[in-house]
Design a protein that fits this description.
It is found in: Cytoplasm. Residues 169-264 form the PPIase FKBP-type domain. One of its GO terms (molecular function) is peptidyl-prolyl cis-trans isomerase activity. Belongs to the FKBP-type PPIase family. Tig subfamily. The chain is of the alpha+beta class. It folds into three domains: 2-118, Alpha-Beta Plaits (2-Layer Sandwich), CATH 3.30.70; 158-251, Chitinase A, domain 3, CATH 3.10.50.40; 262-459, Orthogonal Bundle (Trigger factor, domain 2), CATH 1.10.3120. Helix content is 45%, strand content 19%. The protein is built from twelve helices and eleven strands. The strands form three sheets. Strands 6, 7, 8, 9 and 10 form a five-stranded antiparallel β-sheet that branches. The two termini are 25 Å apart.
Length: 460
């Protein structure tokens, strides 16, 4: 096998590989000789099948395997002998077209192919001694706790049937039949449905048209499904519902006491407040961590400037762009609705993709140099958390991850990233600043600007 480097530009490398016909023949013969002792063919004793007969029966399939093994061997040879770290899998291009490939498969011609690849950039880790970031924290106030407890009580309060008209805040129990163009549609019929008036949980206009209704009354409700409704066959269409009001119930007074706590599995109200305060505190800490990480990544981004593998950037940009266009399509919006153009949006999101790739490579190198490891126990804990997200399908989800190493590896990357971030935080100055809850959660929805550092490079 002859391997010759034909291109070295920036992070791109290209190699020409030639496997002479004589070597192809030698490899094919060796594989057939091994096969001779394993196959059973009528008319021949075990191990006595002539190679010529084996070649006639299995030659092409065995040669295809020989070629694939040669490609894999060439890739390993190129990487090992040149000490390369690949950004993505190499691209193989068979030279000479189909006719030349056919000759090679018959061992009547040389096998020529090129291996094109991109390597990871080499860069020195920056000194972070001058980096100072702020960890913004918020304390759980009595008002935060009271609001949370009150919300829990309201969401779990009881209702009692009443006479008279339904008012905002009441619950009406209804049967309904929906039609579009006088034709009943799938999912438009239901019985004993509870509608909390003023909750905004039904199609816009549905709840409002039940105000003033009484038990036993029949009403026609006319609504239009939102343009971004989940079912495409209903989105944007006008519908008429025949509604029968079966009961009208008024909410009972909200009572915050030990009985409420027991309904949540707590001994008394004091224990419930402790648990809720602790849960709010965990939410605050998680948000504080997100902001701290974002500020750290912003600081890291100013420290590095090096060439990026275009393949990784394209891969990241594709993922980001598909998400952006998917959300626009789902919400029936255009780039003009967002006060931008597709060209400007592409440029903006490409910068985001470049940032993610750059920071991903930085975190990967920091983690490698610090010898940061992710244990199997940590991966399994992450898998347990993932399984909990699919109640009723736990076994199927567990088996899926156990049978798919790549899927399981996806659980490892975020753990590696968080441990690496912790390692970097130990090297910089972190100053705590107490702020309000409102400020802590401000702009949290602006996720597109958050540097979610991709750690694909860890696997390279």
């Amino acid at each position: 096998m002859q391997v010759t480097e034909t291109r070295s530009e920036g992070l791109r490398r290209e190699f020409k590989v030639t496997l002479p016909a004589s070597e192809l023949e030698e490899r094919l013969t060796g594989e057939l000789a091994t096969l001779k002792d394993r196959v059973r063919i009528n008319g021949f004793r075990p191990g006595k099948v002539p190679l010529a007969h084996l070649r006639k029966l299995y030659g092409r399939s065995v040669m295809a395997e020989v070629v694939q093994n040669a490609v894999n061997e060439a890739n390993r040879k190129i990487v090992d002998e040149n000490g390369l770290k690949l950004a993505l899998e190499p691209k193989i291009d068979m030279a000479g077209g189909q006719e030349e490939v056919e000759k090679a498969l018959e061992a009547k011609g040389d096998l020529d192919f090129t291996v094109a690849l991109e390597v990871l950039p080499e860069f020195e880790l920056a000194d972070l001694g001058d980096v100072s970031i702020t960890k913004k924290v918020a304390e759980v106030s009595d008002e935060d706790l009271e609001t949370a407890i009150t919300r829990m009580a309201e969401q779990n309060r009881s209702f009692a049937e009443k006479d008279g008209e339904a008012a905002n805040g009441d619950r009406v129990t209804v049967d309904f039949l929906g039609r579009i163009d006088d034709v009943a549609f799938e999912g438009g019929t239901a019985s004993d449905i509870e509608v909390d008036l003023g909750s905004g949980t039904f199609i816009p206009g549905f709840e409002e048209q039940l105000l003033g209704a009484k038990a036993g009354e029949e009403r026609k409700v006319n609504v239009t499904f939102p343009e971004n409704y989940g079912s495409e066959n209903l989105a944007g269409k006008a519908a008429e519902f025949d509604v029968t009001v079966k009961a009208v119930s008024a909410p009972k007074e909200v009572v915050i006491d030990d009985e409420l706590a027991k309904g949540f599995g707590m001994e008394d109200l004091g224990k419930l407040k402790e648990a809720v305060k602790s849960a709010i505190g965990r939410d605050f800490e998680a948000q504080s961590r997100r902001k701290l990480k974002r500020e750290l990544l912003d600081a890291l981004d100013t420290k590095y400037a090096f060439p990026l593998p275009e393949g990784l950037v394209e891969q990241e940009f594709g993922a980001v762009w598909n998400q952006v266009t998917g959300e626009l399509e789902a919400n029936k919006r255009t780039f003009a609705d967002e006060d931008t153009t597709e060209e400007a949006a592409r440029a903006e999101y490409r910068k985001i993709a470049e940032r993610r790739v750059r920071l991903g490579l930085v975190l990967a190198q920091v983690g490698e140099k610090a010898d940061i490891k992710v244990t199997d126990e940590e991966v399994n804990q992450a898998l347990v958390e993932r399984v909990r997200q699919y109640p009723g399908q736990e076994r199927q989800v567990w088996e899926f991850y156990q049978k798919n190493p790549n899927a399981k590896a996806e659980l490892r990357a975020p753990i590696f990233e968080e441990k690496t971030v912790d390692h970097i935080l130990d090297q910089v100055k972190v100053v705590e600043e107490t702020i309000s809850r409102e400020e802590l959660f401000r702009d949290d929805e602006d996720a597109k600007d958050e540097a979610k550092a991709s750690t694909e490079a860890q696997a390279q």
